[in-house]
């Protein structure tokens, strides 16, 4: 009898041990719904997805990428989410689509009203995020996206212009065109006029590029000055040309990206198509002459040896994207793919850092730069070097993803 009880006791003990071990093993199984989990287990993802997942980990809500206090309709979020749109189109990963849609739905109500947007400010920067609405409308057929598209398009109808018919950068900057503004307004304008207006305004779009090409080109370097004041009244403006006193890397990057993106909607048979392609080729040749041995470009690109200058991530990423896309689309000779890859190598080797869990960061991004305003920005070399230098700022993150996608890196 004692033996039988001992046998029962032994069997019971063994069963308990098996159950305990099983439960213990189950607890070890990953129970992680973190969207970043796939990055933690593998560093073999393409750089585009590694950066996109890193951003989502740090900022589950896209509006907070630059740590602003509340959601805002502004160009930088649109810049990053345009990169996510391209990534979604390539991967069909709904995570990237939802990241875009969550932001837009937070900012646009059922009537198509955009939270905080004031048309009468005539700020061309505010048009940029409108690029996200085309695909959302195509996918969902939700009328609120179409209404918001029409609202932003109506801004361009009343937007103040120079006497030579160029869009002012903002109402508060009369008679001024900045290279930045071409990226903010023209790709949106081009897609809208092609999809809803039978392309009737493509000549007007090409004219914006021609004005800044003709007015801001520095013939010594082949690069472009940051901005142009048609009135020549601003203290920063050259009294003979109206140009800003210096060349700023990211302004050139905005211009290059604007060209390759507008060309998506400029038919090859259009009389202005080849003109824009020629501008892109001119710029590609010029910026290649100022590429550092690292593959990157300097904040003030034509003054590499001057004290304080630094290799800047956002403008470098923009150049890589524009060059790579230009080659992929057949606008540029294939030699520029080598230059683009060298630039991307520079970003990875010099400006990207990787955490132990695989999260990546992009360093040495100029926070912002402009002209005039209060406090006053004089466009001097010293001014461009005085702006804060940040890590993981949206100006660099969006172009980095797009560059990686174009190079399939």
Automatic annotation (TrEMBL):
The keyword Hydrolase applies. Keywords: Hydrolase. This is Glycoside hydrolase family 88 protein. Gene3D superfamilies: 1.50.10.10. It comes from the Bacteria. One of its GO terms (molecular function) is hydrolase activity.
